[in-house]
Amino acid sequence: SAISHALDDRLAHPRRESPPNAGKPWSIDEDAMLDSVFASGGDLKPLSQALGGTLSALESRLVKLGKLPPRSGMRVSVPAAG
Length: 82
Known about the structure:
- This protein is mostly helical.
- It has 4 helices and no strands.
- Helices cover 50% and strands 0% of the residues.
């Protein structure tokens, strides 16, 4: 039946869990660590694991901090003009 097929599909492709800090605001210390590792050309993967995020989240944060230009198709939140 369609229902059992949908359930089988769900079991075959379980949802990936979000990283522990997904959606949480960045602290000043986390921004400083990211800036330091990026400026020194260090590997961001260990930092993403230490911060409980993803490489994409670090890339987005670097864009927001003005350290990287946005990639084509990247959704970037821009602070509202005020």
